[in-house]
Write a structure and sequence with these properties.
The protein has 217 residues and is an alpha/beta fold. It contains 11 helices and 8 strands. It has helices at residues 10-19, 29-34, 40-53, 67-78, 92-104, 116-124, 134-139, 144-158, 172-181, 190-195, 200-215; strands at 2-6, 24-26, 57-61, 84-89, 108-113, 129-132, 163-166, 185-188. An 8-stranded parallel barrel has the order 1-2-3-4-5-6-7-8, surrounded by 6 helices. The longest helix is centred in the last third of the chain and has 16 residues, at 200-215. The protein is globular and about 70 Å long. The structure holds erythose-4-phosphate. Erythose-4-phosphate binds next to helix 7.
Length: 217
């Protein structure tokens, strides 16, 4: 199972990379705006910096929504670094753009997936990743994890190579449940990843070991 961090914050990306468990990064226009990045040059430079900090696939989302604009933008993003994965929204022109990039050998991540049908179409178009948004479904009282299970079943039925990149993660339990149902990748805020390492019995056990270790010297 691959671990991606879902942020455009360079300090958090560095911290996750330093942990040694990071397999990639995902961003989106909202996350870029949160970091105060604006203008084409600044956006391109930010992606370049992320690629220099983190190993693995780095998703960079197109800002446009027509086929012609998305392929122009995606080609420019892909030229920044070999690790860039062009992130394309799940719309009709997006399907055409996925096919264009797939034919060119440029990796893609189809974002804003909220149904199994959308995931099926993205796989047919040759997407390398699909991003079902777990948390946003849970937010409207729809079981996001059920969608991951449906996509897993469909992809396994037909041996689609598209990887399920579970997105919109809100908690460590989302990560654990994704691992149980076979998501290929999770992309998560750093806080949920770090929460995985916490347990009160680990803390109290270590405190006791540290205290007893002093008696040994
Ligand atoms: C996916 O790639 C998105 O960047 C992200 O996971 C969306 O998460 P949110 O619902 O917390 O905004």
């Amino acid at each position: 199972m691959k671990f991606f961090i879902d942020t455009a914050n360079l300090d958090q990306i560095r911290e996750a990379q330093d942990l040694g468990i990071l397999d990639g990064v995902t961003t989106n226009p909202s996350l870029m705006a949160k970091e105060g990045i604006s203008g084409t040059q600044a956006i391109m430079q930010h992606y370049k910096t992320i690629c220099e900090i983190a190993d693995g696939d780095i998703s960079a989302e197109v800002l446009s929504t027509t086929y012609e604009e998305m392929i122009k933008e995606g080609d420019e993003l892909a030229a920044i670094h070999p690790n860039i994965v062009v992130k394309i929204p799940m719309i009709k022109d997006g399907i055409k753009a996925l096919k264009y990039f797939s034919d060119k050998g440029i990796k893609t991540n189809c974002t804003l997936i909220f149904s199994a049908g959308q995931a099926l179409l993205a796989a047919k178009a040759g997407a390398n990743y699909v991003s079902p948004f777990l948390g946003r479904l849970d937010d409207i009282s729809v079981d996001g994890m059920n969608l991951i299970e449906e996509i897993r079943l469909i992809y396994d039925n037909y041996y689609f190579g598209t990887e399920i990149l579970a997105a919109s993660i809100r908690s460590p339990m989302h990560i654990i449940n994704c691992a149980k149902v076979g998501a290929d990748v999770i992309t998560s805020p750093l806080s949920s990843i770090l929460s995985l390492l916490k347990h009160p019995l680990t803390d109290s056990g270590l405190a006791q070991f540290v205290a007893d270790a002093k008696k040994l010297s």
